[in-house]
Design brief:
Elements (H helix, E strand, L loop, with lengths): L2 H9 L4 H5 L3 H12 L6 H10 L14
Length: about 60
């Protein structure tokens, strides 16, 4: 799954703020932003996913054409 898909799944869980060590207001803010198609930075999403035990299965590969 993509970073966005994983993050959306993560923050949709109940009481996830306890697991992540952030406020419940922050989680509500992320949920509202996603509904508006506004996403947190990739770095922030990656950091929170890692705190929740998610691991990167495949790194992004960049190539100049």
């Amino acid at each position: 799954m993509t970073t966005r898909e994983a993050f959306k799944k993560l923050i949709s869980a109940r009481a996830v703020h306890n697991q992540l060590g952030i406020s419940s207001a922050a989680v509500r803010h992320y949920r509202a932003d996603i509904k508006k198609k506004e996403w947190p930075s990739t770095d922030l999403m990656s950091e929170l996913l890692a705190k929740a035990g998610y691991k990167v299965k495949q790194e992004k590969l960049w190539e100049k054409e």
